[in-house]
Amino acid sequence: MKWPNHGGQPETMKQLFGINQDSELLDFSANLNPLGPPTWLNSALADHYDTITRYPEPTYSRTTASLAKSEGVEENQILLTNGGAEAIFLVAKYFENKKAIIVQPTFIEYERACLHYHIEMEDVFLEKEKEFQLPLTCILEKLSSTDVIFLCRPNNPTGTVVKEEELQVLLEEGKRTGTFVVIDEAFVDFLPVSIPSLTTWLEMYPNVILLRSLTKIYSIPGLRVGYMMAGPTIIHAIRKEQIPWSVNALVDAMVPKLLEDKTFIKQTRGWLEEQSQFIGEALTNLAFYRSPSNVNFYLLQDKRPLDTDRLFQFLLKNGVVTRHTHNFKGLNGEYIRLAIRSKKENERLVYLLQKWRNES
Ligand SMILES: Cc1ncc(COP(=O)(O)O)c(C=O)c1O
C-alpha cells in the first residue's frame, strides 16, 4: 500500500480504497480550523486582485512590521516565508552538512529537509508510555555532538506540548554546547491561553529558532503563509538564501488583516474547548485511547493496535477520512490521527466509533 505522505487528500483516499468518486467524505485527516477561513477573506482577496499585476515589495516591510507588532519582537527578528514548509527548508539550509536530532514521531518535513541539505540525523522518541513527553536525559547526553534539534510544539501528530522547564534546560545546555533548538509552533494559536507561545524566549536564548504557519489556524493551506523568528544575525543570514518574491502579493496584503482579527482566534478557542471536551468524554466512554493533546487533533488507538488499519477502512467506507500514521516514525500505523471538527461532524464521528465498537 502506497499511503499518502500528508493528510487532507480525500480524493486520493477514494482512489486508493475504491470509494465512489462522487461520494462525500468528511475530512478528519487535515488538522485545519473548521471555523476558517474568516468570512471576510473572500471579498478582501477580491478587493486586492490588482496586487497580482505587480511584484510584491521585496522586503515585505509592512507585513513584517505587523507581524513584529503582533508578536512583540523587532522587525529584524522576523522572516516572512511561503508557508511553514519554506521556513523548515530555509532553516535546514542554514544547518547544511551539520548534525541534527529530530524528536519523533513528528511532522515528516523536518526529515525531508535534513536529507535535502545533507544533515546527519539521529532520532529520539516521544513514547506513549511516557505520555509523549520529551526524552530529555537522552537528548542531553547527545548534545555536545549535535548542532541542531528539531522539535514541534504542540507536536504533530500527538498534540502534546514539551514542558517549559525541560525546554529551558535544553536551551541553557545548548548555549554551552553551541546547539540550536528549532521549535515549530505551527499549531500554537490553538493552545489554551494558559500555555503561551515561546516568543519572549528569543531575548533569553540566542540558540532558539521559532517557526510559524498561518495555514492551520486560518484554514488557508492554498495561500501559503508562514514566518520564522530568531536573533537578527540568524534572520539576516537565512534571508539571503530565500528566493526573491517567495511570498506572493495577495498574502502580503492579507497578513496584516488576518492578524487584526482577534475575534476569530477567540471564537476558535471557544469552539475548541467545547468540542475537545465533547470528544474527550465520548472517547473515554467508548474506551478508546486518545493522546494527551492540547490542540485541535489527537492520536486515537483502539484496544488492539493491530486493528487500526481495519478501523481506518471502516471509517473511510462510512464517509470519514482520517490520517494514517504509517509514515510517522515510531507509530508504525498503530494509531490514526483525527482532527477536531465542527459539532455536527464530531457527532457523526462518535456515532461511527460507537457503531465500530458494537460491531467489532
Ligand atoms: C507541524 C507543521 N509544521 C509546518 C507545516 C507546514 O505548514 P504550511 O502549510 O504553513 O507550510 C505543517 C503542515 O502540516 C505542520 O504540520
From TrEMBL:
Pathway: Cofactor biosynthesis; adenosylcobalamin biosynthesis. GO terms for molecular function: pyridoxal phosphate binding; threonine-phosphate decarboxylase activity. One of its GO terms (biological process) is cobalamin biosynthetic process. Keywords: Cobalamin biosynthesis, Lyase, Pyridoxal phosphate. The keyword Oxidoreductase does not apply. It holds the Pfam family Aminotran_1_2. It catalyses: O-phospho-L-threonine + H(+) = (R)-1-aminopropan-2-yl phosphate + CO2. Its cofactor is pyridoxal 5'-phosphate. It is an enzyme of class 4 (lyase). Signal peptide: none annotated. Residues 25-350 form the Aminotransferase class I/classII large domain. The keyword GTP-binding does not apply. Decarboxylates L-threonine-O-3-phosphate to yield (R)-1-amino-2-propanol O-2-phosphate, the precursor for the linkage between the nucleotide loop and the corrin ring in cobalamin. This is threonine-phosphate decarboxylase.
